[in-house]
Amino acid sequence: MPVVEVPSRYRIPTQGEGQIEVDARTVRECITAVEARYPGFEELIVDAKGGLHRFVRLFVNGDELARDALDTPVASDDKVAILAAAAGG
Amino acid sequence: MGDASGDRLIRLDMSNQTAIVEPYPEAWKLLGGRALSARILLEECDPSCDPLGPDNILVLAPGVISGTSAPTSGRISVGGKSPLTGGIKEANAGGNPGQDLMKLGYRVVIAKGKPADPERRYAVDITADEVKVIPADEHKGKWNYTLISDLVKTYSKTASFISVGPAGEMQLSGASVACTDADKHRRPARHAGRGGLGAVMGSKGLKYLSVDPNKRAVRKPADGKAFNALSKKYTKEYIAGPGQEPFPKWGTSAIVTEANNLYTFPHKNRVEGRSPDVETLDGMRIVESFEERGGGMHNCMTGCIVKCSNIVHDADGNYKTSALEFETLTLLGSNCGIASWEDVADLDRLCDEIGLDTIETGAAVAVYMDSGGMEFGDASGAKRLLKEIAEGTDLGRAIGNGADAIGRRQKHPRVATLKGQALPAWDPRPLKAAGVTYCTSPMGADHTAGLVVDPGQAQEDIAQASQESQILNTAIDASGFCQFLMLNLEEIGQFYSYFLGESVTREQIADIAWQCMQDEWEFNRRAGFGPKDDEMPECMKQDAIGPAKFVWDVPSDVVAAAYKRFEARDELFTQRPS
Fold first, then answer.
1. Which residues of B touch A9 (CB under 8 A)?
2. Chain A residues with beta carbon closer than 8 angstroms to that of B425
3. Is there a contact between B578 and A89 if contact means CB atoms under 8 Å apart?
4. pLDDT tens track for B111-168
5. CA terminus-to-terminus distance, chain B
6. Strands of the B58-62 sheet, one edge to the other
7. Is B379's pLDDT higher than 90?
8. Does the distance separating the beta carbons of B254 and A54 come in below 8 Å?
9. pLDDT at res. B493
10. Contacts of residue A54 in chain B, CB cutoff 8 Å?
11. Helices (DSSP H) in B75-124: which residue ranges?
């Protein structure tokens, strides 16, 4: 099953879990599957319109995913990594 | 060695309005900005002095690399004993005065004394040939924009300015020091805001300083070839990397939604971690306004490649303010229940005009609202309140003196301050390591002293994370680089080495920063600070936010661990600011 790698910043809803196996066929389904197990996770990654939040970047097996490509298929051994891009202010 | 060998310093005695130029001591060669300010204050200022008395010292210290061709390197530190915290304080700002001073070879301005007549106002004119104190009574009481607009008519086109508004003249504890922007208007929009250092400048009768580098070129590094190659390499990497991210592209205000998601967008005097008005306060609304109204992103200092500063126009297309930052949108917006970014823009302009820290002022207005003095969300009332500060009413002075002062006046207990200074937007309840910084930093609750945005950290990691961030940020604030350029200690050491023509290792840079913090802790100890001053306020322990019920629950021994230096690990030298 694909694995979602959650950075420390977004692990409050996942109760500290950083590697989460999910049953999913696309990147979007990966996020939804984590949400189903850990409510409150999805809103950190995806905005109300279903797009990626502007400070979030996704990588599949190390390659950055285009911001409009959440429906990209994933294979059973894929790793979906999340990067929180910035802070400051 | 480069042209640093002829460096000088300026000593002002405002008791008799004299200026002396001296050679810059060799012993301070590696010190600049915050580290230089700390050393001077520890060596020359009595920590028990009255912050607004003649014995306090106002330090204006550009960073070591300021005035060179390195990107985004011209920041200036303002230092002194704070009337807000009662301890040592450094706040820094962009704009051009820092690099203009350094182009002239002036590494620091040290101002002591105060005029016998508190009604008098003075200015200091700084050029390559002369430093002189002149009368400036005709500028008494002027708001910052009016002052600078008058000054640019009479000074050279190459001059930049450092000034205080009415809040500084009234010596209010929330007063800021303004520096002028790089652009042709030279607007007083860059503020060394925190800690009330504008009041220290005002107490010395100083209304403004002008710095005219005329046609002086940038400072020459000892190894110009290597220095320029490093500057070009880093610029290229920054533009291709961090410079591509949304934050440099849209400014700090665009992080509102991320902060809200993490429960660190305080609402209504911090009783909530999220705001229902996140959409209307999101900095992307400001970005969207550019197309119709004009304005846009710009660099606040010559040679900046970050360009995170927005210029905000009103509905008629006229300039309103710059820069409208995340912290301001939080403290004067969400924290006051004010929903419109345009109202916050008005409040930001008022703060810049009167010369006030937007964080302290926003926190103070929120405390006033929470105490029943005004309804949350009353934007018109908040603007009226800020104008009262300039008018010097009793209520206005209490607001202008900060959150603690208005809390005492209103007898209201929910006041989120530490060492007398209001907490910034980044909330210590979800962000524990940032909280350790607020508790232990000599600066008090100041996110620029060591921000860590990581609510998922394990408790055993937070003291070291805070300490490493404090060391990095101190090093950056000593260098003159902007934190948003995101240099690490290794890279700062390389810039120092090529500029000075001698090896300065990343370990030395870390040691300089740690020594600075030790100087500051020692100053505070002599000023009477103890463990009780590291206590997070009760409201942070009691008012839970978010579904996880975040409160400040970090044991004091975990906090205190940040005072003892951890063994350096590689992450210390390679990490970049949060």
1. 262, 453-456
2. 89
3. no
4. 999 999 999 999 999 999 999 999 999 999 999 999 999 999 999 999 999 999 999 9
5. 34
6. B18-23, B8-13, B106-112, B58-62, B76-81, B88-93
7. yes
8. yes
9. 98
10. 246, 250, 254, 257-258, 284
11. 97-103
Angle at which helix B33-44 crosses helix B459-479, to 10 degrees, equals 90
Q: pLDDT for B217-243, tens place per residue?
A: 999 999 999 999 999 999 999 988 877
Task: Render the burial of B432-442: b for 16+ CB within 10 Å, e for the rest.
Answer: bbbbbbbbbbb
Tokens of B474: 């101190």
Answer yes or no: do B327 and A87 touch at CB < 8 A: no
Cβ contact, residue pair B577, A9, below 8 Å: no
**Which of B453, B469, B472 should we substitute to test contact with A (largest number of A Cβ atoms within 10 Å)?**
B453
Q: Is B484 on the interface with A (CB under 8 A)?
A: yes
What is the interface pTM, i.e. ipTM, of the complex?
A: 0.86
Inspect the interface and report whether the beta carbons of B262 and A88 lie closer than 8 Å: no
**DSSP per position, B177-203:** EEE--SSTT--S-EEE-TTSHHHHHHH
In this structure, are residues B554 and B462 in contact, taking their beta carbons and an 8 Å threshold?
A: yes
Considering only CB atoms, which chain B residues are within 8 Å of A84? 258, 453
Q: Convert the pLDDT of each residue in B435-451 to its tens digit.
A: 999 999 999 999 999 99
Contacts of B15 (CB under 8 A, 6+ apart): B54, B112, B113, B114, B115, B116
B46 is written with which tokens?
């009595």
Distance separating alpha carbons of residues B472 and B466, to the nearest angstrom? 10
The Cα–Cα gap between B251 and B298 comes to 10
Mean pLDDT over B60-68 rounds to 98
Q: Is the model's pLDDT at B1 over the cut of 70?
A: no
Contacts A–B by Cβ distance under 8 A = 73
Give the pLDDT confidence score for residue B3 in this predicted structure: 56
* Interchain contact, A43 vs B261, CB within 8 Å: yes
pLDDT of residue B578: 79
| Helices and strands (H and E) in chain A: how many | 2, 5
Closest Cβ–Cβ partner in A11, A86, A89 for B456: A11
